[in-house]
Amino acid sequence: MKNQFIISVFSENKVGLLTKVCSVFTRRNINIESLTVSESEIKGVHRFTVVVSVEEELVIKITKQIEKQIDVLKAFFHRNEEMVYQEIAMYKLPTSLMLTGGSVEKIIRSHQARVLAIEEDFTILEKTGHKEETQKLYDLLAPYGLLEFVRSGRIAISKPMKEFKEYLAELKIANAY
User: Fold this and answer.
1) 53 backbone dihedrals φ, ψ, rounded to 5°
2) b vs e for 6-25, b when ≥16 Cβ sit within 10 Å of the residue's Cβ?
């Protein structure tokens, strides 16, 4: 049975590593639902956050394959309930909609969206939350003439208390022998 998994990959910041990681999914014909890459809490180490829907046996194999890549330090997979995660979405609307004080304003307030910029022709809103939450706001604002919409990939932190720094220390000790 397919489940959604979040794969966290910790690596050195090397050119071409993203291609190598993505090729693991491509070879197995697995669609990446979300991909985010950023710095981690350790200087010089980057974190890939990849969301996929696959069987558990397959995510185990994928994670092991990713770890075999040069420059990958460690890869983990988690179920959604083992992570705290969010996405961010931005919406551009005509400013004229904001000036009426009507239903658009009520929608924005009820979804706790934040106004980032107000220009003469457009207003930009921000909403953080799960994909379903940002999509719901999109669905409500679309009939009013959304000018632009963008949603980020998922960012996630695991609930288990063992930190990556501990895994890195274990890796250094294991490599010393």
Assistant:
1) -115, 110
2) bbbbbbeeeeebeebbeebb
- In angstroms, rounded to a whole number, what is the distance separating the alpha carbons of residues 130 and 46? 23
Which residues partner with 85 through β-bridges? 156
Q: What backbone phi and psi angles, to 5 degrees, belong to 20?
A: -65, -45
**How far apart are alpha carbons 33 and 4 in whole angstroms?**
9
Tell me the CA distances in angstroms from 168 to 15, 45, 78, 93, 120, one per residue in order.
Answer: 22, 11, 18, 46, 51
Q: How far is the C-alpha of 8 from the C-alpha of 48, rounded, in Å?
A: 6
For residues 145 and 92, give the distance between their C-alpha atoms in angstroms, rounded to a whole number.
Answer: 9
Q: Is the per-residue pLDDT at 177 higher than 60?
A: no
Q: How is the beta sheet containing 3-12 ordered, strand by strand? A: 34-39, 45-54, 3-12, 72-79
Q: Which domains does the chain carry? A: 3-83 (3.30.70.260), 85-151 (3.30.70.1150)
E strands along the chain, which residues?
3-12, 34-39, 45-54, 72-79, 83-94, 114-118, 122-129, 148-151, 155-158
Render pLDDT for 118-173 as a digit per residue (tens, 0 to 9): 999 999 999 999 999 999 999 999 999 999 999 999 999 988 766 666 766 766 65
Q: What is the pLDDT of residue 173?
A: 57
